[in-house]
Structure formats: C-alpha cells, structure tokens
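Appendix B: complex inputs.
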Amino acid sequence: MSDPTIQTTGFPWLTAVVFLPLAGAVMLFFVKESLVRWTALVVALADLGLSLPLWLLFDPSTPRMQFTERVSWIASPSINYSIGIDGISLPLLLLTTFLTPLCVLASWKAIEARIREFMATMLIMETAMLGVFVALDLVLFYVFWEAMLIPMYLIIGVWGGPNRLYAAMKFFLYTLVGSVLLLIAILVVFFHGGQTFDMLLLSRVGYSPTVQNWVFWAFFVAFAVKVPMFPFHTWLPDAHVEAPTAGSVFLASVLLKMGAYGFLRLTLPMLPDATETFTPIMVALSLIAILYGAYMALAQADLKKLIAYSSVSHMGFVTLGIFALNAQGIEGAVLQMVNHGITTGALFLCVGAIYERTHSRMIADNAGLARPMPRFATVLVIFALSSLGLPGTNSFVGEFLVLVGTFLWSQAAAAIAALGVILAAVYLLWMVQRVAFGLPDGHNTERLRDLNLREMATFVPLVVLVFWIGLFPNPVLTAMHASVNNLIEHVDLEEVSLTVPNP
Amino acid sequence: MTLPLSDLTAVLPELIIVAAACLVLGLDPITPASRKDWLAWLSLVSLAVCAGVTSSQMHLRVSAFSDLVLLDPYACFWKLLLYLASGLTILMSLAYLRTERIHLGEYYGFILLSLCGMMIMVSATDLLTIYLGIELMSLSLYVLAGFKRFEARSLEAAAKYFVLGAFSSGILLYGISLLFGVAGSTRLAAIAAAVGSRGLDDPALVVALILLVVGFGFKIAVVPFHMWTPDVYEGAPTSVTAFMAVASKAASFGAFLRVFLEGLGGLKANWYGLFLVVCVATMVLGNVVAIVQTNIKRMLAYSSIAHAGYALIGVVVAGQTEAEGAVRTLGVSSVMLYLAVYAFMTLGAFAVVAMLRKGGLEGDEIEDFTGLAKRQPLAAFLMLVFMVSLAGIPPTAGFIGKFYLFMAAVKAGLTWLAVVAVLFAAVSAYYYLRVVMVMYMRDPEPVEGPLPRLAMSPAMTIVLASTLAGVILLGLYPNPLVSVTTYAVLSLK
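Resulting structure:
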C-alpha cells in the first residue's frame, strides 16, 4: 500500500489554522478592554480566511491525508506532532472556523462580565477543537480531546445561567469519565499495534477479536458520551440550558461532532470486526436516540431544552448513518454532522437573540414574535424547516442519504428512523407556530426590536449555507467521496454502488 | 584509617549542605532579625553549588565508604529533584514566615539538614545508612512541623508526626535488624545475594519484609499507613507542608525503590502482591476521602496520598515477577518522572496557598478561595493550572506523568490496574475542579474597605513562575525529563 499521506512542504497551513486562535487568545490580554471584541472577531475571521485555502487546494480525488505535517514530539515512546486532513475532517474543520466568528458576534452584547477572559476561552476552545480534527497521532488526538474540557467547563460555569455550577460539573465529569477509558484503550492499541501511535499505521493492524471488543467498548463510552448517544445523553440538556449562547453553539455544532468523528476516525478503521459485531447494538441505540430525543423535544417548554433534545435525535441520525456501514450512510452522516452544526447552531443563536430581548427562554413567554420581529421570524422559520429536513434545505440531503444507507442495511430500521423525521416536523413546526405566530397571551412582546445589523450578520451566512448545501450538496460530498470510499473498503464490507441523489 | 579522596568527592554535595547548615545555624544568632533573608540566600547559594556539583557527577558511578553509599545517576537524579524542591521551599518561605511571624534563621538550617538526610537516603546502599538518612530527615522535619510554636495546631502536628514517625522508624529498624540476622549484613548487595538464594523459607525473613513494608509505607504515606498525613499537613506551616509533601516523599520513594528492587529483588514474588493491594487501596482511599475535605491543606494531603498511590503503579510494574528489563525500566523511570512532575504541581499549589496567607486571608479553607478570580485573577489562574495538572488533564505535566505510569501498567499487562487508576483520576477531577469552581464561579462576599492586597514578594514570583513553567513546559515537551529518568534508571541493578 502506498504512503497514506501526501507529504507537503512549504507553508504549514494546518498548524497556522489550528494555533492562530490560541495566539489570538494570548493577544487578547494585551489589548484595551474596548478592543477585545473586535480583536477576537478579527482573529476568528483571520482563521476562517486562513482555512479557506485548505478547501480550495484540497485534492478530492484521493483518500490520502493532505497538508500533512510531522514533527517528532516525544522521543520515547515515539509520539509525533502529526497532523493532516482528509475528506472527512475537512468539512468539520471548515465548520469550526466558520462558526467561531459567528459565536464571537453572538456574544457581543450577551456577555458583559469578564469579556476578555470569555473571548480568550472561546479562542482556546477553537484551537482544541480544530486540533482534534487534524490530529493523526493518537496521543495528540487525546491531548486536544481532553484540552477541550477545561475551556468548555469554564464557559458553562462562569458565564452560564443560574444552575451553571451543577451543569458545568456534570458536563465535565461525564465527558472526563468517558474519555479516561479512551486513554487506556489508546495504550492497549499502542502495544498491540506495533508500538506506534500513528493512527494510519494502527488502522492497518489486524487486532485479535478480544482486543477489538474491549477497545471497541472503551472507545464507545468515550465517543457515545460526546455524541451523546442514548443512554449517555443526560448531561446535554443541562449543559445546553445553562451555557451562554456561544457556548451552546460550540457545544451543539462542534463538540457533539467529536464523538461521531471519533467513531469514523478510530473505531471503524481500527476495529472493523468489532464494529461489524456490534453494529446491531449501535443501530438500536441510534434508533432509540432518534425517537426518544424527538419524543422528549415534544414535551419541552424551554426552547433551549427543546433544541437540546432535538440534537439528541439528530445525532441519532448521524450515528445511524455511520453504523449503516455503507457509502451513503457515512456520507450522509458526515454531511449531517455539518448540517446539524449549521442548523442547530443557528437555532441556538435564535434562542440567544430571543433571550437577549425578553430574558426568558420559555416558549410561553415568547409567543407571537412574527409581528414585532418579522426578520427574526423569517430566520427562525428557515432554520426550523432546515432542521426538520425540508427538501431544498441542507438537512434533507443528509437525512435522505442516511435513510438510504440505513434502508440498504435494514428496511425496518429505516422505517423507524423515518418516524423520527415525522416527529421532528411535529415538534419544530409546533414550536414555530407558537413562537412566531402564537398569541402573545398577556406577555408584552409587541415592542421588541427586530434583528439589528450585527445579528443579521450572524444569521445571513448560515441561511446561505442552509440553501447552498440544500441545493448543491456536491461540493461538500465530492470532497468526502474518496475518503469515505476508502474507509468503507477498509472496513472491508460489501461495497454498494455509489449513487449520489441530487435533489 | 584514612579516607580516599574519591570517597569524599562522592559525598561532596552532602558535605557542602552540612557545612552550609552549620554556617546558617552559626550565623543565625549574630544576624539581626530584619536580615534573616540573608540566611535564606546563603542556603540557596549552597543549593546552587550542589546542583552544579551533582550535575557534573551525573555520569559517575562511585561506590564510597566501603559500599555504604553509591554515587550513581539514580542518586543524582533524586538529589537534583531534592535541591529543586528545597530551593523552591526556601523561596516560598521568605514572605510566608514573615507573615506568620516565625522568621527565624534556624528554619533554613533545618531545611538543609533535612535535605542532607534525604540525600543520604537516596544514595545509600546500606540499610543502616538509609536509616541514618531517614532519621536526620525526620528529626529536622519534626522541628519544622512545630515551627508555628504559638499555634496549637502546629504543635499538635509536630507531636503527632514525632510519635508516629518515631514509631515507624522503630518498626523499620526492627525489620533491618531481622534482615541483618538473616543475611549477616546490612549492605543491599549482600542482602540481595543472601535472599536471592534462599527465597522466603525463613520466618524471620517474612517478618522482616513485612516490617520494612510498614516502615517505608509510613514514610511515603500510603494506605493503611497514611493516618498521620492529613493532620500533620494541616497543622504544619504551609511551606513546611509543601516540603514534606514533595521532598520527603521523593526521597522516601528513592530509598524505597532501591531497597526493594536492589536489596529485596529476590523476593519480588512476595512483595509484589502486597504493593498491588496497597496501591489500589491508596488510590481509592486518597481520592475518595479528599472529596469531603473542606480545608485545602487537608485536601492536598489526601491528594498527595492518592498521588503516592499512582506512583506505586510504577513500583508494582517493576516488581512484577515476569517483568523483563524494558518493562522494569519503564516502571521505575515512570515513578521518577511522576515524582518530578508531582513536585512542580504540588509546590505550585502550596505556594498559592502560602501566598494567600500573605493576602490577609486565612487561606486554609477552600471557602476562602471564593471569588478569587475576581479579586486576584493571576493567583486564581495559577491555582487553576496546578489543579488541572494534579487532575492529570492535558496539556499539563500532570498528564504526562500519568501517561507514562499507565503506559507502564498496560505494557506489563496490568491493564485493569490502569483502568482503576484512570477512573479514580476522574474522581479526583471532582475535588480539584471544585477549587476552580469556588474561585471562578462563585462571587466573593462583599468585603468592607479595600480588598486585601497580595504583596507578591520577588522570591514568591520566582517560585510561581518556575512551577508554572515546569507544569506547562513539561506538559508540552517532556523529552528532557524522560531521557534523564531513563538514563538514571539504567544504573539501578
């Protein structure tokens, strides 16, 4: 087999993209208080600008890792600063750099206390998240993976809502307990895989069934907590409700992707046999998450909780697609990861905009916003429709692919998953009906001001993406074709002929 | 009898430290009360000279005083770590002792004497010499623990420490004497030869082994011999607590590894199981009991117990019967690495506690940290880094330390032990993060008048800066430390 990476010399694009936010965070402590917001925005935009060439220069025809860099980090055992991206990590990396400026904008007024520390924490967070998506060395991956915990803990705990202490600790302990087993699993893989931490080399090792099974479950706990898969999801609603808007967006849009990304990057390539063995369990858990999340979302009176449970449901589609183990399913899953990042992130931004005005997240307190805030209502409707997977919007493509993939695996599973789509329509439309068009019911929502220029600036790019991916998904899908096919071949399962529906 | 010069060069650092200690004690009466700092600087100069000497001896392997002491890279590694811990302790003491109104010259003399005892412990290859080192260290520490002589808590700590310490020394001595009866010598090499050929056939050997485990168990404070730790750590002056938690623990581990691997290596099969039980019990009890502590020094005391438990993983790995060379090397070097990392983060955490004392706060209760991030953002940030590192979260040094220990365990086939350890490391995150929570997420009580200012002394700045740098840099680039520990361990037979 040829070298799985493309050696590139010259400008270290990825390192620059990953560490620019960190440098920006340090810089924030040396600028005037009044310039902190602008500095953070400029840094976040610069990082976005820096990441765009990655997309333009990316060669979609090969599954090999691109823009690779490799420097020895620790000599004994050999741990390398080894990074690179393929078609699976590229969309997620771009999603992260794209959302960070929007999060900065969303926190412009919402965060008043200790703005300097807040913006710095967000930028540090961005570095850690990007690091997870580019790491090709298991220890490096783990370092970035764990490094995310403290910033997120602080974002929830310091700038969160009234019950933030509980939520922050719960988030932290849940994810930490999940990921410490990952460390042991990494070490086990290291010793069984020829004493290397190189993910690509480790993927070529055939591990014994016993090792695969144990490592699979250790990986599973770490990733399932992050996704979160049923029954490890209980930290999510608490964390979302208490986190500030930008924290919720990061959490929903990027952090939840870590788990799914972990399945794709580690579990499937390294443990193909165990994956096949446990696929029915994974699919079952995904289906439970889809239905249970949707069912819980129906019952929520708090907008953030509603969206949090809808996340559980939508991430169920992602894991379902992954474990369908065919090209459609996995491509749908990756696309759905991006879509969920855009749409759910946007919905949290909507809730944030409401909360800034009425200081309530309850649906009942925010009825009938369409009259005073027509622009807001339009935006909300667009994202709600996108979230429920209306044809023409981004989620339709992703969910459709996932359902096709699932259908190939099991028709019954696809039928159950489709129920989740219907339930999504119910809770989202019902929510929109009440919030946008409901009767104000004694609450004075008449005088609320509509979205201002800054808020429009955060929403418009997201709206554009919703329709762009909804109508022309091929640029995103093409980028991942080769990598996904390679992954499927690697997992060594029956290859299903690849057809990309173009709605 | 004449001493060959090589014998004296082998103990040159010890001689320098003793001379410095005598000089400090001698100069103390003629030093004006306002000039006691000079004695501290004098002690630091002697440490710096010793560090230079020891670094230059790093490659040597000299057996001196007819095999009583051995100067080898292993001893040099521990000595360097001990200088570092002593130096940082002295620097952190300057301002702290003044605040506590106990700024007396003999403090520095006792630190140096104690250090000398520790240096003997890590370089001795004879049980009685090790015992002498332990006693020199302990007797000095008893005095230091009671240094706040106007405060009942401090005196109680000293008395408890003395009684239990003397008791454990007695047990150790009893074990040594039994071992002498069996082997006919107190030299580790002779004991190894005698024991290796016999196995555990002699009941005296069984008793001796158990007594040694108990004696050393007290010194490194592992369950079930940990009872003295919280009380002593709480009562002793904070700088002394830091010194005990780091230096005395490091020295005890240094001697402990040498005695059990070199002297009693033949009985591996017999002590391996004992330490396995002790290791698990220590991690479990230390971490669980730390959760309910409200006093930061008690909390750190239990956390130090837990960390001794983690370090024992490396000992267990090294003691595994079938462990061949590479596994054993990894086991021992990971213990050394861990204690070095532990030194930085623990000294840093205690330095912050000591500094808050300066701020006019009581600074001993975790509640006293409430809202610290608003009042003293820098102090809070430092504490955040040290707590995160103690919890073992990357990219701090604490993670690197745990990483190597867990790697050793997995390599030795003790994956289950590593799993237990990580789960309890996750438990520990709860109480470390609670300190962060109190500092960052609770608002301070409104204080009347101006906020107490932290008078940062330059010396304290050095302590905080170097511990912070150690925790971050060793987390990001542990290579130098890893190669030093790997080099130092190879000399251990």
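Residues 325-358 of chain B form the longest helix (34 residues).
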